[in-house]
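The data layer described in this paper is built around a simple, fixed record for each protein. Such a record has a labelled line for the sequence and another for the backbone structure tokens. For reference, a complete record is included directly beneath this paragraph.
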Amino acid sequence: MRFELFIATRYLRAKRRQAFIGIITGISIVGVAAGVASLIVALAINNGFRQDLQERLIGSTSHVSLLRIADDGIKDWPELLEHLSKQPHVVAAAPAIFEQVLISRGPRARGAVLKGMIPADERKVGDLLNTIKEGSPAALEEDPTEPEQEKNHVGTPASAAPATDSSDSLAAVHARVAAMPPIILGKDMADNLGATVGSVVLVTSPQGELTPFGMVPKYSRFRVVGVFNSGFFDYDSSWAFTRLSDAQRLFGLGDLISVIEFKVDDIDKADIVARQLEGAAGKGFMTTNWKEQNKALFHALNMERLVTYITTGLIVFVAALNILISLIMMVMEKTKDIAVLMSMGTRKSQVRNIFIAQGVLIGLIGTAIGLLLGYAISYTGGHYRIISLSPEVYSIDYVPFAPRLTDGILVALVAIGISFVATLYPSWSAGRTLPAEALRYE
């Protein structure tokens, strides 16, 4: 053990008459530990929210979306989809229709985004169909043998069915329900509507149809065949899925689609791939990617991370002030000892190093305790999900913790650095001690 470190450790073990300095030293260690632990936990929560939201968003939506600037639908989309699927960095592509609708069941109604898609293609670009907890997405598969007359006709009220005994029989009712187009609802939407697998809901499109009686909304009855639970409130409360052909009939689009979705091999290069796809598609097309769609959300998370650094770092700063005070008092208490050491040949630099080592030791001990405490809290909170949230506000139902090693290294360096800075003045003051003056009256 070096001479300076040996003296510094001896000084940290205060005697009874130096108990007050020992108390301040203990408070300094606790302050550093509290600041480091708080910063580790806060950064783990921030990282957890970022990772959880990013995984849910990327898993639930496509990386890149191609749509028409004029919003007039994409014609001849099979050829365009095949052409764009061969572009570099494109892993998969899928056609889709997105429209705002009103879904109702009895007196209950909810606004929703109805997505018409082809299940086999949808699974290649998103994971929402894999989150179905009740029912099965198999009912969304197109059945080429299904007679056209058995399909539910848009805008046909229930009262238009023939009021015969056979049509009112239980078997006939089941047959009519089975012939309705299928739909899959989000869990929160299904709960709000009181719908379960097998329920019938009415889907109304705001895009009306011109009739001799004026503009009449288009509507169709759908049979609920599944309920998905992605854990992301925005999707679970306001999204629904149906077959592409049924969505086209409901909205009167013919063979048009509204968007082509893409999955790319590198999500961080989604904006670059989007520009390439836009150029390959030709004039009249535009693209958007997951970064642009959620730009405000991730900007808010970055701002929250910065504020976390500043506010929680103040705790470490306060602890550094305690280190400064304890070292100043230690220098005053040990003036005679310093004079004796210097009179025996100890250099000024060695005296300074004694108090620098003492302050850094306080910082190291506090940082080590804080890191252990912070990572322990983060692991426990993330593993057992001990903190619940309101999904209506935060989009997820628990506080996610995702501690990172790089954050721990950065926090440790900052805490030890601040502790080192706090030692500069006391150590400089100790080095200026004059042995003759200090021992004059001894």
Observations:
- The longest strand covers residues 90-105.
- Residues 147-153, 156-165 have pLDDT under 50 and may be disordered.
